[in-house]
Design goal:
The chain is of the alpha/beta class. It is built from eight helices and eleven strands. Strands 1, 2, 5, 6, 8, 9, 10 and 11 form an eight-stranded mixed β-sheet that branches. Helix 1 packs across helix 7.
Length: 267
């Protein structure tokens, strides 16, 4: 008998730091906790799409390291962005060939921002790849992705912890943030200043939604990693995995989710 317990997980954006989500998912799965619905923004949308497709966290890590999709980006001849993401659409099609939300093994909701209307937009049906691309389209760096009459950019602009699509549809919600900053930092230059300011804004966005989560997980210190620091992928994966293992030790009540699933399956 399949469990009726509905477990939602919201995965934040954060560039390459989102690889830590994969370590968290691995640790949850090892503990017998499997989400029945995933909601993701930006890097969380990419990780979520591949996980919901059925790839194991370790397999997704390998895909990210081997493909390094940043090298597929091309310059944009436009006032709306420096780079264009359309060149990586073919790369996504290798791993999400059906390009359809309904063909995923686990339901997924992807968050993007309608830059013209100034509203968060949630995708959960129809074509899959372009919404995922839109969700991770950093404003100013990438040209907006056009879907219908919407000009879409990174979902983290308005919602970097997309718990709203899970609210009322899940018995438990797990939020995972990948942008934790140390309390103090040595600001050496303008780049450091801008990066820290952006991450602080992303975190405030996420923390304002943490009360909607039954469990909120955040690996410490990930804010020190650059948004494109792909060489740190294994380190980021381990950081997420180590954090969820420690979180389970400190919050054993989360194992009730696994126990409920186990009992339902054996009944």
């Amino acid at each position: 008998m399949k469990s009726d317990l509905k477990i939602g997980i919201a995965l934040s954006g954060g560039g390459v730091r989102g690889i830590s989500h994969l370590g968290v998912l691995k640790g949850l799965n090892e503990a017998g906790i499997y989400p029945t619905k995933v909601s993701g923004t930006s890097a969380g949308a990419i990780a979520g799409a591949l996980y919901c497709q059925g790839y194991k966290p370790e397999e997704i890590l390998k895909i990210i390291i081997e493909t390094n999709y940043f090298k597929f980006l091309r310059p944009a001849i436009s006032w709306t962005g420096i780079l264009k993401m359309t060149s990586i659409e073919s790369l996504f099609k290798i791993y999400l060939a059906h390009n359809d939300f309904s063909k995923l093994q686990i339901p997924l909701i992807v968050t993007a921002t309608d830059i013209k209307k100034g509203k968060a937009v949630y995708f959960s049906e129809g074509e899959l790849i372009r919404p995922v691309m839109a969700s991770s389209c950093i404003p100013g760096m990438f040209e907006p992705i056009v879907i219908g009459n919407k000009y879409l950019v990174d979902g983290g602009v308005l919602n970097n912890m997309p718990v709203e699509p899970l609210d009322g549809t899940c018995d438990y919600v797990i939020g995972v943030n990948c942008n934790h900053l140390p309390e103090e930092s040595n600001i050496k230059n303008m780049k450091n200043l801008i990066e820290r300011s952006v991450i602080m804004a992303l975190n405030q966005n996420a923390y304002s939604r943490s009360s909607k989560c039954d469990f909120f997980i955040e690996a410490p210190g990930l804010g020190k990693y650059g948004v494109f620091d792909i060489k740190k992928a294994p380190e980021l994966f381990k950081a997420g995995y180590d954090r969820i293992r420690k979180f389970i030790e400190e919050n054993p009540s989360i194992l009730d989710l696994a126990n409920s699933i186990s009992k339902a399956k054996s009944s």
